[in-house]
Design goal:
Layout: H1 3-17, H2 20-38, H3 48-71, H4 75-89, H5 98-112, H6 120-130, H7 137-148
Helix pairs in contact: 1-2, 2-3, 2-4, 3-4, 5-6, 5-7, 6-7
């Protein structure tokens, strides 16, 4: 089942349950999918990678807004962003724990043959592809720096 179909089903469920916050988050995801489908050169259905990128982008936007609202003591708006983040997380793959991330990165470093901080770019290019959606880019970058030092 495509992400779009899953979202449509969840929208129906949220409407029946009269869950406004969940419905808003699901509609935002659906809107982003529809926009991606109508872009120039887009195919009829999005690939899994494209769907993942859309979800990650939406999640990142919500997270940044949440942090800003929290800093500005706007708990009403922060809680709304947090609830939307929770809904988006349901469709994202499970993130790796810190230990799992370090182990994956050690495997990638061995695979690439990196030995010094100068090999950071080589490791990051492989790691960002292999760990897409499984870990935050900043976390990957920090761990690679630490492991190569």
């Amino acid at each position: 089942m495509t992400l779009e179909n899953q979202i449509n089903e969840k929208i129906k469920e949220a409407m029946k349950a009269k869950d406004k916050d969940r419905l808003n988050a699901l509609r935002a995801i659906k809107s982003a999918i529809l926009l991606a489908n109508t872009e120039k050169g887009a195919s009829q259905t999005l690939s899994k990678e494209a769907e993942l990128k859309i979800l990650q982008k939406l999640y990142k936007q919500r997270k940044e807004s949440y942090e800003i609202f929290t800093q500005q003591n706007r708990s009403d708006l922060a809680s709304e962003e947090r609830s939307q983040m929770t809904v988006i997380e349901e469709f994202l793959p499970k993130l790796l724990s810190e230990d799992e991330l370090i182990q994956e990165l050690k495997n990638i470093i061995a695979e690439v043959g990196a030995t010094s901080p100068g090999d950071f770019g080589k490791v990051m290019s492989v790691a960002s592809k292999k760990l897409a959606g499984k870990a935050d880019g900043k976390a990957i970058s920090e761990k690679v720096k630490n492991l190569l030092e």
